[in-house]
Amino acid sequence: MIEWLDDVWSRTRAVQIVEGGEDGGPLCGRAVLAELPDAVSVEAARELTTTGRFTGDICRCHGGPTVVLRDTAGEVLASAGLHGHGSVSWERSRFRNDLVVADPAALHLFLAGHGVPNQLTSFLAPLADLLNLHEGRPQFRPAGKEGKRYLTERGVPDVLHPVLVAATGQQCGELPDAQVDDVRRRLTAATPSPTARAAILLSWLGRLPIPAEALWGEGVLVRQLLADLVLPDVAAAAAETRTGHVATGVINLIMHSGDDGTLATAVGPTLRQLFPPAPAANTVGSRRTFGRRTAR
Predict the structure, then answer these.
(1) For residue 199, how far is the Cα from the chain centroid?
(2) 208 and 154 within one domain
(3) Residues 263, 162: one domain?
(4) Do 111 and 129 share a domain, yes or no?
(5) Structural domain total, the chain
(6) Are residues 104 and 21 in the same domain?
(7) Which contacts of 73-80 are long-range, i.e. CB under 8 A and separated by 24 or more positions?
(8) How far apart are CA 105 and CA 240, in angstroms?
(9) What average pLDDT does the chain have?
(10) For residue 82, what are the contacts with CB-CB under 8 A and spacing of at least 6?
(11) Cβ atoms of residues 216 and 173 within 8 Å
């Protein structure tokens, strides 16, 4: 399969990322999410999608989006579906041999940087594993004295404890506007700096158990508070506070509000630090670059 990859990439002159996976229909009829504009980006795509470890098996989902290689005439040479975080399936029906790429973080950040949507959301599960954020029992923070410990562990500012301790985590996701405004005023008075508030909120959001509390409980409240901040302040907090919890908070926020690339750029260095590439000794890869052979 390495020889086949060498051959198709040596003839590749354009790379597209198109919508959908193996069940998406003919490639020519799909929406184009990104086109790599030059030889440098094409070579980066080759390196990121052909270096890794073959599994000898395939993912059972249809995957998506799809990487499409085209020659000088615009004809399709090959395609590969993306399957979750860091898995690429080249011509799945032919080879049935998925590749776990050596540098998943770099791959998804690269695609996000070229405008491919929903790439950062793939980091949520790896971050939950890394930070042990998978929910247990109870799913939502309890109210009262028992719940105060959770607020402390989640880094919730003390000034908010009197308001929040009266509600469960689930109820925090359903607070009326007047109570949300009260929380907002208290937090702003205690932390006037918008960037500092953003850092507190992102870290809080990134400490919530996944999925229930983070998506539907306290997470709703925290995202409401973040919505009051301008994007540059949130991005500055993400760039300056390089922790796994802040990165998880950014991913949670992006899942619900989208991103024009600003937050991806801000959180990218943290994600690269948290998820370094696999050691070269444990990987295989295509030996051809864009139109020339290189040693590996």
Answers:
(1) 19
(2) yes
(3) yes
(4) no
(5) 2
(6) yes
(7) 74/14, 76/27, 76/28, 77/8, 77/11, 77/12, 78/8, 79/27, 80/49
(8) 19
(9) 92
(10) 21, 63, 64, 65, 66, 67, 88
(11) yes
For tokens 């590439």, name the residue: 277
Q: Does pLDDT of 288 surpass 70?
A: no
Place of tokens 């899942």: 255
| Integer Cα distance of 38 and 145 in angstroms | 59
> In which residue are the tokens 């198109």 written?
18
Q: Please choose, from the candidates 269, 278, 219, 224, the residue with its C-alpha nearest in 3D space to the C-alpha of residue 242.
A: 269
User: 279 lies in a domain?
Assistant: no
pLDDT in tens, 85-116: 999 999 988 888 899 999 999 999 999 999 99
Q: In what order do the strands lie in the sheet with 87-90?
A: 32-35, 14-18, 66-70, 76-82, 87-90, 99-101, 52-54
pLDDT per residue as tens digits for the range 257-281: 988 889 999 999 999 999 999 887 5
Closest by CA to 48, choosing from 126, 116, 129, 95, is: 116
Q: Which is nearest to 50 in space by CA: 284, 279, 281, 296? A: 284
Instruction: Kindly state the tokens that stand for 244.
Output: 């796994």
- Name the residue among 113, 120, 100, 118 with its Cα closest to residue 49: 100
Packing angle between helix 244-257 and helix 262-274, nearest 10 degrees? 140
Does 40 share its domain with 104? yes
Q: Which of 59, 83, 117 is the last residue of a domain?
A: 117
Expressed as residue numbers, the domain containing 151 is 125-274
